[in-house]
Design goal:
OB fold (Dihydrolipoamide Acetyltransferase, E2P); single chain; about 220 residues; 2 domains; alpha+beta
């Protein structure tokens, strides 16, 4: 079972670094390079440029209750289009919107990226973000989980009657929580500081290895004591 989990986690790690991270990075760069649509591009239906639309607010939902958080705006265009855009939070824009307000929407590749009203702007959830550090952190997490499952599974196969201390309690559980903490503890500050994404694996992997060795040494000393 652990070997299968290791293979699944390894596949997730490969996908994160070979497809997910490059795809998000390319999409963000394409969005940054996009220019306003010309009249010819609009006539051709070109969606790789930035088009501007003047929409009317039909209703908004701005609710946070416990773990549920909904921040939406339903918009209409000349009685011919109606759609809902989603936001990461209320922000200074959404909390001021009321039914009937006119807003300016910037669209790219068929999705609304930004809404603007009287100079106050807010990105929608569809807008590409330069947050590849978290992609890298999740990829590293998958890779480290693959390594842990492989090591624990191999030891169980080699020593089925005596797998200690490579069991879930206490070493495996503590190691898992430590690995998760290290990946997010490196990824989140890296995203906030806007450092290159490749610094995340460079920092997270050695830290996780040191943490694993420290936990192993601590457990060995406790067993001896």
């Amino acid at each position: 079972m652990l070997i299968l989990l290791s293979l699944a986690a390894a596949a997730a790690c490969c996908l994160a670094f070979s497809w997910w991270l490059p795809s998000d990075g390319e999409r963000y760069q394409d969005y940054r390079r996009a220019e306003p649509c010309s009249s010819g591009a609009m006539a051709r239906g070109d969606t790789d440029c930035l088009s501007t639309w003047h929409l009317t607010v039909e209703k908004t939902v701005n609710r946070t209750a416990g773990k549920e958080s909904v921040h939406d705006a339903t918009l209409t265009y000349e009685d011919s289009w109606r759609g809902t855009v989603h936001f990461n939070g209320s922000g200074p824009f959404l909390e001021r919107l009321e039914s009937g307000d006119r807003v300016t929407a910037t669209a790219w590749r068929g999705e609304i990226m930004v809404l603007d009203r009287d100079g106050v702007r807010q990105d929608t959830l569809e807008a590409p973000r330069d947050e590849l550090q978290m992609n890298a952190a999740l990829g590293v997490l998958a890779g480290l989980l693959a390594a842990q499952c492989l090591a624990f599974g191999a030891i169980r196969l080699a020593r089925p009657l005596d797998p200690e201390p490579y069991t879930w309690e206490p070493y495996g559980r503590r190691l898992l929580f430590t690995v998760v903490g290290v990946c997010f503890g490196v990824g989140l500050p890296a995203a906030w500081a806007d450092v290159p994404w490749w610094t995340v694996p460079l920092a997270a992997v050695p830290l996780a290895m040191c943490a694993a060795l420290w936990l192993r040494l601590r457990l060995r000393l406790r067993l001896r004591g």
